[in-house]
Amino acid sequence: MLKDITLGQFFPGDTLVHRLDPRTKLILLVVYIVALFQAKSWWSYGLVLFATVLCMAVSKIHPRSIFKGLKPMLFIIVLTGLLNIFYTQGTPVLPGWIVTWEGIGRAVQMILRITLLIAGTFLLTYTTSPIALTDGLERLLSPLKKIKVPVHEMTIMMSMALRFIPTLIEETDKIMSAQKARGADFETGRLTERAKALLPILVPLFVSAFRRADELAVAMESRCYHGGEGRTRMKQMKLQGIDALALVLGAVFLAAVIVLRHFGL
Amino acid sequence: MEPVIVFEQVHHRYSGEAEESLRGIDLAIESGSFTAVLGHNGSGKSTLAKHMNAILTPTEGRVLVHGVDTADEDRLLDIRRSVGMVFQNPDNQIVANVVEDDVAFAPENLGVPSEEIRRRVDEALEIVGMSEFKQHAPHLLSGGQKQRVAIAGVLAMQPEIIVLDEPTAMLDPQGRAEVIATVTRLCREKGMTVVLITHHMDECVGADRLVVMSGGRIVADGSPAEVFSRVELMESEGLSVPETTRLLYDLDREGFDLPLTALEIDDCAELVARTLIK
């Protein structure tokens, strides 16, 4: 069951989207999110949806992997939808109902917004290796170093966290099997009982995570790690023609959504 | 042979501990040699290893690497660059999600130019025989393969000395054999100085020199054949000797007069055969 976790997953490939510089992709994600929150009308939602589907097609990411990533968010998506249906004023669908046409419209838009938000983020992580992603983030945020923001430290922590996800998942599986072998029950019982049953997993997991962190720090120091100063990179990032093209397209896209909003569409 | 690492009356006590972990170590590791350090848990062998690249510094006495005192913090990077260290758990020393990115970590830290890093990474992976896995995710490799990646990660620093702190403790027999073969090749073909910390006596047989530790002291030091032939001493330290030595020792106790120096099975068999013919 833990094998399903898609966070930080990366599908290697050689499509146009894969070849974009990680910085370009990060900027485009921000543009995309801004556009998504600017969208008000069906026209602009349609435009964002079109852009998302286009990117998915170009990057050859199967919609199924996006839906798999959406699964843990299902509860929030459904709840948002329901709240919008029942709490929006307007014309009732049938006389006397609290469900309104406006409510249904809002609900669909909100669900679309959350789904697209997550889908866009997954498109980035699915097509960019974690190292490239954190390197890109570090470079983008590097101006913040001037005001003493520990950018390098933050990004190295992020890449270590991503590196240890599979290791810790494996470890959790092992601990769970060991506890099950001794009669622990994680699947049945009331919510509070199930939460209590997790305690014997979390305690050894935390103990081992701290031990690992300690050993990792010593191993990093042994390999001459001394912070971000004077570090070089094996894989250097280079902005190319397609990056410029992608950024221009992103700007046009954002402009289109804003113009649509301006005309009340 | 000039010594590359020198311990001078080194004592070490972990903070908060009453007992010293090292109690007066004098040791000189010679350039290009393969030294094995044998001892069971708590003998101080890991503490000894951690003194070789200044992860720990002596509470008394001093350690010199190429003549530089490890207590000199200004020279820390020089020391760590020339003494590479491989640890017990391969999972906890791999820093990246892709094999080649991990191997590049040390030269990146040292500020080596990109093209040079690329060259070193390819070369290091070649030496440990992991070139075909350079795009793989480390967590999907076997224990022995992960440990070879860890060795490549150290080689990419181009150290003169490589210290391995129980690199085989968490591996299956096949992984152990892979790692020991790789390490032996580094010494014999590349002329690197190797220090192997272990509690498996069979991994020490191929070394030039065997140092036995117990209770924070060196209790025996010499060629593996010499050290293992002191069967009573080894047993009093709770360490076993290779089965070949054991056989010759038992035969001697039954009235034969065989030297205990034949460690390899073939040598031992020949020795016994010759004695029986006489």
Model description:
The complex is a heterodimer of chains A (265) and B (278). Chain A is an all-alpha fold and 265 residues long. Chain A has two domains: 1-128 and 238-265, no CATH class; 150-231, no CATH class. Chain A is 69% helix and 0% strand. Chain A is flat, with a radius of gyration of 23 Å. Chain B has a single domain (3-223), classed as P-loop containing nucleotide triphosphate hydrolases (Rossmann fold, 3-Layer(aba) Sandwich). Chain B has helices at 45-51, 76-82, 99-103, 105-109, 114-127, 143-155, 173-190, 224-228, 231-236, 243-253, 265-277; strands at 3-12, 22-30, 34-38, 60-65, 68-69, 83-86, 161-165, 193-198, 209-214, 217-222. In chain B, helix 5 crosses helix 6 (143-155) and helix 6 packs parallel to helix 7. Chain B starts with a strand and ends with a helix. The chains are: A mainly alpha (265), B alpha/beta (278). At the A-B interface, helix 8 and helix 9 of A face helix 2, helix 4 and helix 5 of B.
What's the short story on this structure?
Chain A has 265 residues and is mostly helical. Chain A has helices at residues 16-19, 22-38, 42-59, 63-70, 74-86, 101-127, 130-141, 151-181, 191-222, 241-262. In chain B, helix 6 runs parallel beside helix 7.
Ends of chain A: how far apart? Answer: 44 Å
CATH hierarchy: architecture of chain B:
3-Layer(aba) Sandwich
Spatially, the strands of the biggest sheet of chain B line up as 6-7-8-3-9-10
Largest sheet of chain B: 6 strands, mixed
Which key terms come to mind for this protein?
heterodimer, A: 265 residues, mainly alpha, 2 domains, B: 278 residues, alpha/beta, Rossmann fold, four-stranded antiparallel sheet, 11 helices
How are the SSEs placed, and which strands pair?
The complex is a heterodimer of chains A (265) and B (278).
Chain A: H1 16-19, H2 22-38, H3 42-59, H4 63-70, H5 74-86, H6 101-127, H7 130-141, H8 151-181, H9 191-222, H10 241-262
Chain B: E1 3-12, E2 22-30, E3 34-38, H1 45-51, E4 60-65, E5 68-69, H2 76-82, E6 83-86, H3 99-103, H4 105-109, H5 114-127, H6 143-155, E7 161-165, H7 173-190, E8 193-198, E9 209-214, E10 217-222, H8 224-228, H9 231-236, H10 243-253, H11 265-277
Helix pairs in contact in B: 5-6, 6-7
